[in-house]
Design a protein that fits this description.
Blueprint (H helix, E strand, L loop, with lengths): L7 H14 L10 H8 L3 H4 L6 H24 L4 H18 L1 H6 L11 H19 L8 H20 L9 H15 L7
């Protein structure tokens, strides 16, 4: 018999608590045992509410991607061109700092998982927000995918290194981030020969 008050939504909420408590490794360290401990139940009790760890991770990832997309859309709302790209880049970094475990969930290996259609659809919405912003920079339409990839890889690389403590040189990290943002804002509209 299911524990009183334990529902799928409660299990997912507890899983998000585990992710949040784990910092940058929160999503990686998400286990059914950790969720069960928070719920005060044995692990098998969770199977009444979720289809196992993989299904729970996918749902957590979808929620995290939706949250990130909302943050980016809010940041870029009403903006175009360089201000939109700057706002979205800063919003992504702020999201990663405020919720590093959830940010990690947005970067999961689910992209190639055939069972992860809901997360993939959520990820496509994130990419659309980014694509809309870089397009308003004047990016050649034939290079939109390239521009989105440059945007995402630069941003994710910077944020991942930063969260891991990878910037030990004596230079203000905020200044370095602003420099990276300006490099992209300047470089993305360049008309390069494919």
């Amino acid at each position: 018999m299911p524990r009183a008050g334990l529902t799928t939504d409660v299990v997912v909420s507890l899983a998000l608590d585990v992710v949040d408590a784990g910092g940058p490794r929160g999503f990686e360290d998400l286990t059914l045992a950790a969720v069960a401990a928070r719920a005060g139940v044995a692990v098998p009790s969770l199977y009444k509410h979720v289809g196992g760890l993989s299904a729970l991770r996918l749902e957590v990832a979808r929620l995290c991607v939706d949250d990130l997309t909302a943050a980016l859309a809010d940041a870029g709302r009403g903006l175009a061109g360089a201000p939109a790209v700057r706002a979205i880049m800063h919003a992504t970094r702020a999201f990663a700092h405020a919720q590093p475990g959830r940010y990690q969930a947005t970067q999961g290996a689910w992209a190639q998982d055939p069972t992860a259609t809901a997360v993939q659809a959520a990820g496509a919405r994130t990419v659309a927000v980014i694509a809309d912003a870089v397009t308003t920079l004047g990016v050649d339409p034939a290079r939109t995918i390239d521009a989105v990839r440059a945007f995402r890889s630069t941003l994710h690389g910077f944020v991942t290194l930063e969260l891991a403590g990878g910037f030990g040189m004596p230079r203000d990290v905020d200044e370095s981030f602003a420099y990276a943002v300006e490099l992209l804002v300047t470089a993305l509209p360049a008309r390069l020969t494919p």
